[in-house]
Amino acid sequence: MFGLQASSAAASWVVGRMGTDAHLYDDPEDASIPALLDSRFDADRIDALKRLLALIAQGVDVAHLFPQVVKNVAAQSLEVKKLVYLYLLHYAEKRQNEALLSINIFQKDLSDINPLVRAWALRTMAGIRLHVVAPLVLVAVKKCARDPSAYVRKCAAYALCKLFDLLPEESTTLEEIVDVLFSDNSPGVVGAAAVAFKSVCPNCLALISKHFRRLCETLPDIEEWYQITLIEILLRYVIARHGLVKDSVMFASNLSLVAQGGVTVDTMSYTQPTSVGGISGTRPNIMLLRHYIEEHPGCFDREDDKFSSPSVTTSTNDDVAILLKCTSPLLWSQNSGVVLAAASVHWIMAPVEEVKRIVGPILFTLRSSPDAAYVVLGDILVFAKTAPLLFAPYDEDFFICSSDPYQTRALKLEILTTIASESSIPAIFEEFEDYIKDPNRRFVADTVAAIALCAQKLPSISSTCLEGLLSLVFYESSITNSVHLDGEDIVLVQAILSIKAIVKIDAASHEKVIIRLVRRLDKIKQPAARSLIIWIFGEYSSVGNLIPKIIPPVLKYLAWSFAAEVLETKLQILNASAKVIIHSAEEHLEEFKRIMAYITDLAACDLNYDVRDRARFISNLLPCGKTSLNENDSTCQSHSQDIRKELADHIFGGKIPTTSHSDSNYRIYLPGSLSQVVLHAAPGYAPLPKPQSMELIYHTIKLTRDTANSSESNNSNAESESSYESGSVYDSESEGGGLSDKDATGSSQYPNDDGHNLHHRQDNQEAPLVHMYDDNVDQGQTGRNVEDNLSSLISTDLTELMSKSALESWLDEAPALPAVQESMQKSIARVSFTNRSFERKPKLHTLLDPSNTSGLSVIYAFSAEISPISRLLVCIDLFVENNTTDQLTDIIIKSEEASISKDEMDQTSEGSASIPTLAPVEEIRSLAPQQTVKMILQVHFHHHLLPLKLSVLCNGKRHPAKLHPDIAYFVRPLPMDLNAFLCKENQLRGVFEYARR
Amino acid sequence: MLQCVFLLSDSGEVMVEKQMTAHRVDRAICGWFWEYVLAHAAGDPSKVVVSPTHYLFQVYRHGVTFLACTQVEMPPLMAIEFLSRVADVLTDYLGDLNEDIIKDNFVIVYQILDEMMDNGFPLTTEPNILKEMIAQPNIVSKMLNVVTGKSSAIGNKLPDATASFVHWRTTVVKDASNEAYVSIVEELDACVNREGVLVKCEACGDIVVNSSLPGVPELTLSFANPTIINDVRFHPCVRFRPWESSQILSFVPPDGQFKLMSYRVKKLKTTPIYVKPQLSSDLGNCRVNVMVGIRNDPGKPIDSITVQFQLPPLIASADLTANHGTVDILADQTCLWTIGHIPKDKAPSLSGNLRLEEGLAHLHVFPTFQVKFRIMGVALSGLQIDRLEVKNTPSAPYKGFRAQTQAGRYEVRS
């Protein structure tokens, strides 16, 4: 019967395996793979490729067959192709040269009529990551981004991410493709574009602004994975653009507003600043805010109030409202990642009274996706610490069930203690009582610790807690005495620790508890538990009325048992008796001193160094009877006694500094991030952008867009106008033109937007926000108005007198301009300044790459400052960084050609003007590891675009380098008064012509 | 961005290794992980583990550990949800999930992984589309493979759905039988504390739809009493607006069986059955007595009742008998009492004696009893489907409804 069953089971197993690839996995090398690969039949080749795959799966290196496999890439059969691709992707990086062989086939496949073939070719071509073919891939991606098949476009977006690793210098081109993909009308492609955005240009939030509304609206239609990514991007955009919401949790001072209807609010228990959790008033929220945005400490420095004024917005802001509206249905998503991402948007941006809508969905994910529970609970813990009342009504969701793993249990316990309030504590306590009987002893110990935390938070229940804990101590001690099992005593020790923590708050009123605990001493055998009780006894020996009465018998008992104790208990006995001596009243002092002397005598003969040491120390500090060596010099004696007393008081009577809960150094990261789970900043973690940091860029885009829209013929106008704006325009509208020439003509526009990509964090000087707009409407009366407005708006240094020489510095050798006549027509361009601050980020160029120079990295950026030596010199900021672990010494930067001498500086002689020259710079004596030094280089470029040849000497080695000039910085600002400006402006043909008509 | 996905067997062997990005992960990390599991977590590892070199995410299903590695910040839930999606898709494809099945079908596993993730980010995860791209192994294809020696699991055409707005539905559903079945599957979570008080009782339900409809049908499902629902979550096909405004589910279904919606009804008053455990111990003996009976008759038969508990540690021997059903003590010190139906004439009870280890007079830890049962034909939360409308189909389809409740996390502490 059984045999029959067994054979039928075996038969079904055989049938189950029949036709699968089982035999290939079991024995991949039982056939000659190279021979099969060269076979003419697809079936053989598939067989061989499957064997190779099996070997890869088992961790065998089969890279040596690369050439034979690669040639199969040309096969017609899709299955062969797919298997070859799998192999290629696995090994291409190891075998770069052979992988090149496949490129032609990919190129051919890219124009196949089957979109699947195109998509695969693109995925594989980008996936094999060969630097040599990266430009080819870029071309392919550009083409595929406009492919008729949405799937291919989606793959193009993925290929962008891969390309970015290979071609970081092409980031502008890649951004343009991201932009194209964002405008796609298939939700799948838009979602994939979000992924590409995240890896190509995560800080280029200005790109989002023109798509923002549409992205929000497509949010529900795109796939869940993309939703997670896109929600995060949109949140960052809104914060960078509009700032935080004023009435959100981030700024709420009193979170009692968050409380749900039926719950009686007991704000007192949360606003006690002394309570353990530190959950008080406004502090944690500002702290939360700091943790989320910490990257820019400048804006939070001294006063938090100051911060709240400039960079907040309200939830009625259109963009904020639409983001909240479009993310709220996502709280019903079946993917817990989406729920958490949507919830964190609401947590950060929604008004306080609406935050509670996230609670239900988040808690539901605990049940509906159990795998996610651990991560979600970690985030709930942060939410609950900030706004305990939000979760207070849901305590039963955090009740622990027997199937929860240990980590989940620990988190749930912590949340329960955080949200416990006067009204919910009875139910929570009943639960805790049940948990104490749980078979998992570590969890029981945690529960006991949680009880103490609750009691510290809600003093009204402390006596109930103590009763429970005492009976637990008695019960546990009886068990652990009879059975010795690993981890059994942690509960007992933790229970005593908890008692100690509760007693500490108000020792006098709990003295009976202390007495009962001490009386139990002879029943408790655990050394750790014993020492704890002895410590409690010593610490509170002078507290209350009853404890002093029990001191003599206890002390005698301790002296009697001293010899049998273990090390830590012996030390505690010594300490405790010293404390008793210090605090005891006169009448018993002699008796105690005798006991003390007995104990120190015993201890002085102990086997352990530490005990002997401690005994000697204490007997010197507190002379107990027999120390009277020489009575004659009594003054000296009394003096030293005073010092001893002082010392002893300090050592034994000193209050222990209240060990603040880990809250102070508790780091909080953005909800839903990996960093929040692992509690350290994972590589690549980026806090939220600084609120309203992209204000300027947004305005100017709007401006350029408006003007560009007005008519075709105005294009030149719009451009010139935008280039007036201190080079801050992000040129997002120029899809075709912006690509081609970024070196010469567009350079005034680029520094800023490239600076954004590099995400280089520097403090830049603040500049006023310039807002320029046309004022065609009331042309008639502008004349006077403009002058009034401007003279009142423009700061005084702009209206300083204009000198001829200053004018000449536009182009230094330019001949004096002919005198200008007063024009009848006035300008109608209007400039307004607001007090908005913004950062200008300079474009950074690399002078020396650390990989070539054994760790010395030099980056330069052109600065707009005027050289103190001569106006003809262009200032360049140089950032010298040491990337090695060693000290670098004697870094000298000098020109390959001779540098200019002082007297030559102002001359513009034709002879030496052909090559750029460098003003002498001081050397850097030494550079510590990871240190960055900024220095200023002053170069006379003589208005040529020739690079300056430099040699950098470091540690005695010479590194050649070339510094390429940026033509935009040859131009100098020219101060002039309004009238002069207006008449000069009239001479500029073609710029303002259209307005004059 | 996930750098690598590994599939580990129950013994820690690497069955499948799929590198996702250029930053290759050496499979030595699996060895580290396995040692970590054995050393620290006692088979209960956290879902996110920090190794010296990588952050690891893991999901465990039926003896297979799905392990993913990354070195950079990414939403951890994305990784965990992705791994569980991989597990679901593989289960769906291969019928079941275990070590042997993964090894036998490793080529399909590779192809699915490659399609589901590209460059460390999920690409195509919709099972319907995947099935068109990579054929599901079935008896016919296996036989064909055996007879002809040829097979092609790869679809040679791009599924149309990749381009469509309803990305979960294949555009051309062939041989549809024009039927739609809606079933409510509820799980009852309850917790009874040591005093016998019902601490928590709630029902978590799924609405599972099995649709086999031609064309692009429009379905509308409404409930008689939607207000009792506390929490919801939906399949991507459900439109949010109709639910927001009038609690109606409006959707274009994917083909085949899928979970349309999950919901939770909290604060239920009673449970259909009671379980009353009593443990009393003295002098090294512990008497166990468990009674089971019907508390609140749901009107339909309750079957497949089982009561399970972990024997406390420090037990020398156990002697347990029941007056109805069978009692088994499993290898991991679990006592399983299979009751089945509750007979009309007597109340089932389990009684017996646990002999404690030498020197232990009293039991100090008490087990938690997990109760399982099943009731066909009833949704205990009381949720009722009002009606299902199907539009946009050539002929009126056949519609079917059913309901079922089973025990979820039903726990009785003793």
From TrEMBL, chain A:
InterPro entries: AP3_beta, AP3B_C, AP_beta, ARM-like, ARM-type_fold, Clathrin/coatomer_adapt-like_N
Protein name as it appears in the record: AP-3 complex subunit beta
UniProt GO BP: intracellular protein transport; vesicle-mediated transport
GO cellular component, one term: endomembrane system
Region described as Disordered: 706-760
Annotated source species: Brachypodium distachyon (Purple false brome)
Compositionally biased residues, Low complexity: 709-731
SMART domains: AP3B1_C (SM01355)
All residue ranges annotated as the AP-3 complex subunit beta C-terminal domain in the record: 786-946
Keywords: Membrane, Protein transport, Transport
Signal peptide interval: none
Family: Belongs to the adaptor complexes large subunit family.
Localization, UniProt: Endomembrane system
Database matches in Pfam families: Adaptin_N
From TrEMBL, chain B:
GO biological process: intracellular protein transport; vesicle-mediated transport
Domain of life: Eukaryota
Keywords: Membrane, Protein transport, Transport
SUPFAM superfamilies recorded: Second domain of Mu2 adaptin subunit (ap50) of ap2 adaptor (SSF49447), SNARE-like (SSF64356)
Domain MHD span(s) in chain numbering: 177-413
One annotated Gene Ontology cellular component of this protein: clathrin adaptor complex
Compartment(s) where it occurs, according to its Swiss-Prot or TrEMBL record: Endomembrane system
Coarse class of the protein's main subcellular location: membrane
Pfam families per the UniProt record, alphabetical: Adap_comp_sub (PF00928)
Family the UniProt entry places it in: Belongs to the adaptor complexes medium subunit family.
Protein name according to UniProt: MHD domain-containing protein
UniProt source species: Brachypodium distachyon (Purple false brome)
Native organism taxonomy: Eukaryota, Viridiplantae, Streptophyta, Embryophyta, Tracheophyta
Name of the encoding gene: LOC100837988
